[in-house]
């Protein structure tokens, strides 16, 4: 499945063409991975070594969107596109797939999953109905499988927890309201306290995981994205602790020269200032 290689003059001309578009990027990657003339670092990479960069670039796209940094988003999307090109080049070299087969596959999938746009199915449905149809089509594509099969292991843990819970909920394994979830949170909290007091590190970690899992379930019932909520909490903590550092600096001190009582008082001041 390797891409048909250009002659060196053709390759040089395409790479030098600022209007070369996607073919130019594909050729750049092919040249970087050339076993004789490419970049030693790029040649040494494989799917596993590049995967962390792919995840990082996806998060950087998300970060730019959340910050409304539209001047940065274009570049971050380019970085993310490069990751697809990188994996496709390695796939072509291994005879597994090519960039063309990747794009053909996703195009076919989008057409199949949107019969109301590319077929004769009705478009007169709510977004919720469309989502249900999408999931039904995905389930049919997977064929006979367990309810939880196919939820990617590499997802962020909170996101994967919600997806697993959504799958289970579709077959009726779910609390009917938040009351049951809140009761379970109290139960798991008590078990974590017990583990802290009389159990070892492994049991404590297990009970802590159970509590986080139920918290993710509560977020799902409240239509809250737990990843987004935690990111917002991280930002709030960073902002308020930065204010503590600023106030301490005005007094000629650093956090290391302060104590918990003083910093807690300054934390309350930072919170009050945000409400003004």
UniProtKB/TrEMBL annotation:
Its EC number is 3.6.1.8. The gene is mazG. GO terms for biological process: dATP catabolic process; dGTP catabolic process; dTTP catabolic process; dUTP catabolic process; response to stress; TTP catabolic process; UTP catabolic process. It is an enzyme of class 3 (hydrolase). One of its GO terms (molecular function) is ATP diphosphatase activity. Residues 266-276 have a biased composition (Basic and acidic residues). Residues 254-276 are annotated as: Disordered. It catalyses: ATP + H2O = AMP + diphosphate + H(+). The keyword Nuclease does not apply. Belongs to the nucleoside triphosphate pyrophosphohydrolase family. The keyword Hydrolase applies. This is Nucleoside triphosphate pyrophosphohydrolase. It holds the Pfam family PRA-PH. Residues 45-118 form the NTP pyrophosphohydrolase MazG-like domain. Keywords: Hydrolase, Plasmid. It comes from the Bacteria.
């Amino acid at each position: 499945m390797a891409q048909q290689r250009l002659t060196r003059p053709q390759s040089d001309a395409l790479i030098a063409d600022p209007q070369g578009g996607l073919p130019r990027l594909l050729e750049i990657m092919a040249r970087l991975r050339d076993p004789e003339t490419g970049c030693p670092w790029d040649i040494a990479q494989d799917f596993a070594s590049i995967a962390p960069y792919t995840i990082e670039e996806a998060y950087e796209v998300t970060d730019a969107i959340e910050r409304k940094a539209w001047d940065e988003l274009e570049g971050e999307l380019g970085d993310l596109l490069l990751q697809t090109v990188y994996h496709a080049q390695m796939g072509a070299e291994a005879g597994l797939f090519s960039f063309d087969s990747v794009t053909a596959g996703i195009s076919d999938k989008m057409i199949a999953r949107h019969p109301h746009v590319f077929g004769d199915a009705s478009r007169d449905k709510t977004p919720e109905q469309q989502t249900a149809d999408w999931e039904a089509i995905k389930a049919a594509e997977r064929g006979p499988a367990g309810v939880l099969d196919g939820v990617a292991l590499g997802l962020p843990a909170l996101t994967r927890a919600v997806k697993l819970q959504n799958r289970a909920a579709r077959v009726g394994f779910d609390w009917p309201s938040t009351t049951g979830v809140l009761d379970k949170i109290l139960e798991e909290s008590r078990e974590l306290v017990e583990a802290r007091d009389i159990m070892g590190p492994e049991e404590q970690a297990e009970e802590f995981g159970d509590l986080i899992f139920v918290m993710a379930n509560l977020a799902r019932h409240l239509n809250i994205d737990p990843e987004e909520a935690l990111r917002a909490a991280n930002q709030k903590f960073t902002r308020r602790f930065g204010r503590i550092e600023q106030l301490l600096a005005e007094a000629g001190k650093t956090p290391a020269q302060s104590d918990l009582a003083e910093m807690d008082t300054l934390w309350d001041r930072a919170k009050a200032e945000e409400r003004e």
